[in-house]
Prior knowledge:
The complex is a heterodimer of chains A (363) and B (309). In chain A, 72% of the residues lie in helices and 3% in strands. Chain A contains 14 helices and three strands. Chain B is mainly α and 309 residues long. Chain B contains twelve helices and two strands, in the order H-H-H-H-E-H-E-H-H-H-H-H-H-H. A two-stranded antiparallel ribbon of chain B has the order 1-2. Classes of the chains: A mainly alpha (363), B mainly alpha (309). Chains A and B meet through helix 1, helix 5, helix 6, helix 11 and helix 13 of A and helix 4, helix 10 and helix 12 of B.
Amino acid sequence: MRIGTIQIEKRQFVPLRDKILNPIVFVIFGLVFSSMLIIAVGFNPITVYTRMVSYSFLNLRGISGSIKAGLPLMLCGLSVSIAFKMNMNNIGAEGQYAIGAILGGGFALFGPDLPITVRLIVMFLLCAIGGGLWAIIAAALKAFWNVNETIVTLMLNYIALLFMDYLCYGPWMAEKQTSPISATIPKGMYLPNIGNSRINSGIVVAIVIAIVLYILFKYTTTGYQIDVIRNSLKSAEYAGINVKKYIFIVLGLSGAIAGLAGFVQITGVVHRIQAQLPGGSGYTGIVIAYLSQFNPIAVIIIAILFGGLENSCAAVQIMGVPSQIATMLQGSIMIFVIVGEFFNHYRVYINRVDQKQMKGVAQ
Amino acid sequence: MTAFIVSICAAAIVYAVSILYAAIGEIFTQRAGIMNLGIEGVMLMGAVSGFLVVHGTNSLGLAFFTVILVGALLGLIFAFLTVTLKADQTVCGMAFLIFGSGFSGFIGKNVTSIASAVKFEKINIPLLSQIPIIGDIFFKQDILVYLMYLIIPLSIFYIYRTKPGMILRALGENPAALDAAGINVFALRYAYVMFGCAMAAISGACISLSYTNFWNEGMTGGKGWIAFSLVAFSGWNPAYAVLGALLFGGISIIGINMQVYLPGIPSQFYSMLPYAATVVALIITTGSFRKKHTEEPAALCQKYDRENR
């Protein structure tokens, strides 16, 4: 295809170096673009960025804080990315997280007095089941009636969060409380931090899931079949792959992982149920999943960076910069990485030679 | 009792109009073969930009113009990503959702929850507003509603009765055929995406400049998604989108009013109604158990690439 003297050509093979370098370059472009928006609002972007980076990443306390904040993001990112792996747009991680937290947290608050280990295991399972079931509503609608899962999962977010609001403002609200929070869970169920750091030991859950998913997608038949479904639904059906079964498995798993974010956050950080507990993690998970190109190991790393980004808002809020800067940066980074993706698929030439040749012909 | 029903109907119309702009815009965009999932983000940008201008200048006209401009600009970017760069439309939509909600919160932080001095006020249309009941419901509204009364028949006429409308329908069904006939598929898609985004931005303005007169982060509260599902619900036909919007409007308004009469049920459950209704409506209208010819544009969400023709 030729547009004037710009020539665009499809690339057949993209070297690994380009695959990694390309998003990094365009993340920087995204930051440059956002800096213009920051200037427009009246702040100095260089000061803003340096403060953010030094707060979150240039000291040990900051780094462990970033990892701590990144933990629920890791699980949401993993949740979204496995759904995306099969071309399912699960944008309901937020709601699945909430329902997982409600079910598991409810057990921790009101469950029978079993040994602590048993209680933790049951709570873990209930969080996963809660998130999984919430996602399976969308999976069932998709599998049986081909209803768009994107809208259903999103609508279920609002319903889940409103239900959580109801519980936290209503029956579960702690006594002598004016804010929408429940009582704390039993002390014994608190997950300890690793060593002296602020990092919650729940991170083990995220890392194990990431490794399992990595192996699942790389080395198993299941992973391969999911890959086939993504690339061509028709060939998958032709090859006899039970697509409906996979819709249930993948969305259920995706929801379960998001529900586990509720587990690590309640047992490790907040120790209670509170309204708006997910706080947008589900949506950040979408950005993380996309940036990682659905690679589970990359999800972990990017989630830590995004955890730092969310923490660093506090550093610039003192200057008067609105905390929404984090979401804005995420959005613009995502848009620019999408642009960058184009250059992985196509090569753009600028043809100056062409004009000279044309002149030569004219003479 | 009559007064109560009239007030509910009038409020339902206001609610319906606030999602109809976005829904009709999206119908045009999707008919052109592009799916914009980011309506919610565009609406928020429209709401905040309109409010900022009104807050600064007290000029509603200027605000309205800015809103359209902001929407069209966002549409231009979206079209660049999806039409020129052929990026995945779902992913772009989500990026817009996140960017829109973040950026609108960012620039609107300083004016959060401040009431503006002016907003689109209700205007009584002479004579027509005198008609009992009907006048009270339909003709004591603000100018954005009256504008919608014009847009509904015009959009139906445009899509089904004009030549550009026919080209628009073909654009979503078989762009390659249009291209072969010498029509610039890329330029048209740019135009319709920009139109759709501008309309979505007006939807946002309905919320911050007419429904209320303040700005709050995330104040559209999922209305963009309701508009989005309305498109599939309507079978890509503005006439049915109107019915659907009135239905959603009625459900939400009745929900809000029921709170007063049945306070036993916590308010959160009433707030869930429009979202639950959206899911139910989506199942009924798009569920594949209804074996009928689907109205969905065949080329929807597929990137048009001349080399793959």
